Amino acid sequence: MRFTSIVSAAVFASATLAAVVLPRDLAKSDSKQQAIDLIEDIKTNEATCNARNVAFRREYGSLSKEERLDYVNAVKCLQQLPPRTPESVAPGARSRQTLSIHYSGVFPPWHRWFVYTYEEALREECGYKGYQPYWDWAKYASAPEDSPLFNGDDYSLGGNGDYVPHNGPVIIPPEGVSGDTIPLPAGTGGGYVTTGPFANMTINLGPVGGIQGGAPPGPDGGLGYNPRGLMRDLGGAMNTRYANYSTVLNLLLKPDIEQYRLLSEGVPYTPEIGPHGGIHYTIGGDPGGELFTSPGDPAFWVHHGMMDRMWTFWQAINPNQRHREFNGGPYGHITWANEPPSRKASLGVPIDMGYAGDSTVIREVMGTLSGPFCYFYL
Ligand SMILES: *[C@@H]1O[C@H](CO)[C@@H](O)[C@H](O)[C@H]1NC(C)=O
Ligand SMILES: *[C@@H]1O[C@H](CO)[C@@H](O)[C@H](O)[C@H]1NC(C)=O
Ligand SMILES: [Cu+2]
């Protein structure tokens, strides 16, 4: 019994450690030296993700000023490269996918691959030497606008929007869905971002529209060209309510992927919008406050970095099981919250990046230390 499990472990290992040469004659030689050599061989095998080559994604505020500036400059560089989506397809290619990505079996793997694709573009197309940083939601929950991410200094991702008196966003259940309208807390900005590296940044796509307090839809249902200034509405009320240290702890303690995702992404058309929705609305404004076009705000990527960090850590608590577990509960299907009812997503379901990058399948991206990946979070 024990022997077979060792053999199957070895077979499994040989799939990833192809270049390691095992010693032939164990009895006759120095086993200490052979053990050391073999272990060194395994550790330095370049084809494998190991302690020497693993990349660490770090908290934005823990980066040095120089590292933050490198990131900011790479993001600016990427914004200036010509768009990949052909004009005939319109920039809405990704937006149209939005409804099958959220509350479906694809969400966590899709976003893991999306953030990785972005990180790779920063590194390969813009010479960035670091890795994707993340936004530690709870750390700055009382005043995210004063954090190193958004304080508006030269090393930040731009400041808050200028203050304009306003109400918070309101979630309105669509026709046919029961439930009251849900008013959410307002932030302390609401206007244009006028400080920091992304001051006066131009947004071209969207808004698609749909939430009250947000901007009305742009031309062509929000998929047309619609240049305007970046707006934000950062503030502590939304952040504290939806993404505090209890939220983080409770996420890590969730026993299965169904419970994990019900907290992480919340339940549609209820006040429990989870840290995912809560932080999108904490960024707020335009395009940050909108499901469809939020990746246009540089803050999107540090938020989804944290989303992936939480999932990575949750998986690390029981990797053997959790690197395969993804389609439990109502969010494990191929439609938005299983509406209309659909089959469960499988590991072979494609992750389609459209024109943004290469596509893959869920199976490939279930662990951050295997498949195409070799990264972890600090
Ligand atoms: C941004 O726009 C405002 C208002 O037009 C202007 O006062 C400010 O100088 C601009 N800032 C930058 C960095 O371009
Ligand atoms: C912390 O977040 C949870 C949701 O994850 C919420 O129920 C709780 O009220 C929040 N705490 C505070 C102090 O707002
Ligand atoms: Cu999101």
From TrEMBL:
Any Pfam family hit: Tyrosinase
GO MF terms, alphabetically ordered: metal ion binding; oxidoreductase activity
Assigned keywords, A-Z: Metal-binding, Oxidoreductase, Signal
Origin superkingdom: Eukaryota
Protein's UniProt keywords contain Repeat: no
Domain Tyrosinase copper-binding: residue ranges: 102-119, 297-308
InterPro entries: Di-copper_centre_dom_sf, Tyrosinase/Hemocyanin, Tyrosinase_Cu-bd
Listed Gene3D superfamilies: Di-copper center containing domain from catechol oxidase
Signal sequence segment: 1-18
Keyword check for Metal-binding: yes
Protein name per its UniProtKB record: Tyrosinase copper-binding domain-containing protein
Organism this protein belongs to: Emericellopsis atlantica
